[in-house]
Design brief:
Blueprint (H helix, E strand, L loop, with lengths): L5 E5 L3 H13 L4 E5 L2 H11 L3 E5 L7 H10 L10 E5 L4 H10 L3 E4 L4 H12 L3
Helix pairs in contact: 2-3
C-alpha cells in the first residue's frame, strides 16, 4: 500500500466524509479529495487519478452505482481499474449483487464498522 497516495471520498454527508477521511489518514493515505456526488467525483477523479475511491450509493445528481458503472465503462477517460469501495444503507443480497455487478471491489452496509472499512481497504490495496 506504500504506493497509495491519493483517494477520493464521495458522500453527500459531511460527518461520513470526515469519518472516512480519518480512517484513510490512519492507514497513511494523506492526499484525500472529497466530492459530494457522482458527477463531482468523476471530475475530481479525472483531475487527481486516485489510487482508491470510497463512495456512498445514494446521492443526488449521480449515485455511487451509476458513478461506478461510468468509471468501469471507461467513457470518461478514467482508469477503469481504480479500486472502488461502495458504502450503502441498502441491505441484502440483492443490493450487494447489484454493487458487485456494477464493478465495486468492496461493498459495506451502513452503518459500517471502522474496522471492516480499514481491513477492506488493506485487503484491496495490500498491507502497508
Amino acid at each position: 500500500m506504500n504506493t497509495v497516495k491519493t483517494a477520493v471520498i464521495v458522500d453527500d454527508n459531511p460527518p461520513t466524509r470526515t469519518l472516512i477521511f480519518e480512517v484513510l489518514n490512519g492507514i497513511g493515505i494523506k492526499d484525500i479529495v472529497q466530492a459530494i456526488n457522482g458527477e463531482d467525483a468523476i471530475a475530481k477523479i479525472r483531475e487527481t487519478s486516485p489510487h482508491l475511491v470510497i463512495m456512498d450509493w445514494k446521492m443526488d445528481v449521480m449515485d455511487g452505482l451509476e458513478c461506478t458503472q461510468r468509471i468501469r465503462s471507461g467513457i470518461d477517460g478514467i482508469d477503469q481499474k481504480i479500486p472502488i469501495v461502495l458504502l450503502t444503507g441498502m441491505v441484502g443480497a440483492d443490493a450487494e449483487k447489484k454493487a458487485y455487478e456494477a464493478g465495486v471491489d468492496l461493498f459495506l452496509e451502513k452503518p459500517f464498522s471502522i474496522k471492516k472499512l480499514h481491513s477492506g481497504i488493506i485487503k484491496i490495496l495490500g498491507p502497508a
